Amino acid sequence: MDKEVVRLRILASGCVAAGFAAAGPVDEDVATRLDEWVARGENAGMEYMRRHALLKRDPGNVLPGVRTVISVAFSFNPPRRRDPYLPVIAAYAYGDDYHDVIRARLAPVVESLKNEAGGEWRICIDSAPLAERYWAVKGGIGHIGRNGMVIVDGYGSLVFLAEILSTLPFAPDAPSEKRCMECGACLKACPNHALSPEGTVDCRRCLSYLTIEHKGEWSDAMTEAMHAEAGRHTLFGCDQCLTVCPHNRSIPDTTVNEFHLRPSYSSLTKERSVMFSGEEFSSIFKGSAIKRAKLSGFLRNARNLS
Ligand code: SF4
Ligand code: SF4
Asked: Which of 3, 24, 117, 263 falls between 20 and 30 A from 44, CA-CA?
């Protein structure tokens, strides 16, 4: 099957970029950087990152016999945002859970490609152990900024990444050679100095990690970070290193309606959030990425708000 036909079919799912790379072990320096990041403890409580580090070295660990990694990017740039005076909810979580949305959009495409072209195919969205930013750069859909995010030409870094693995060989696209503007605004804007100039994130200091991924109570150091001004204004996630990036200015709004701000979130206050029962939490965040924090984590965040 012609590669450009495959690309067009994938783009018709609503993603803004799709790029092809020949599968194989990742470059040694990429694997080493990941190992060093874990060894420094910057993965914080995300133990699966340690377990995945070895598996991430080769997409063959995810799909045996894989020949091609197709990276795709879906924009989530919302046409409307929450009032800045309200506690922060990261824009990626405004709408429906991206795992569900992207899988629902890509599954019929991949199914039809499989039926027509044969081979094995697999859709990966976040949970599979893949070095997804590496594959996005190698497939030419974007380059990595100093905030650690992949920047897609014309769409910035307000994008979700996903991968389609195939055992069929497709000619690879040219990898991206670009660099971000290196203005340093993301490093300056990060309220807890979680970003390194090399583009790594120390999750122990990152408000996104602390309010989304961290399970249980915060340690003393984490509490100190969350008690600072920015932490007191963060309900779920932090967009500061994205908001200040010049690559994210003048980019189009997402055309994926499922990622738009849910009406019920547009006026969600601290006062309302701290009162949630388990039933209310499940009901208002049904099908949302915010459920990831679970009620206990969400209430922990809400009680910390000023
Ligand atoms: S999400 Fe917020 S806390 Fe985390 S690195 Fe970016 S600016 Fe810093
Ligand atoms: S804010 Fe500046 S340094 Fe940071 S990723 Fe964007 S362009 Fe690069």
From this structure: 24
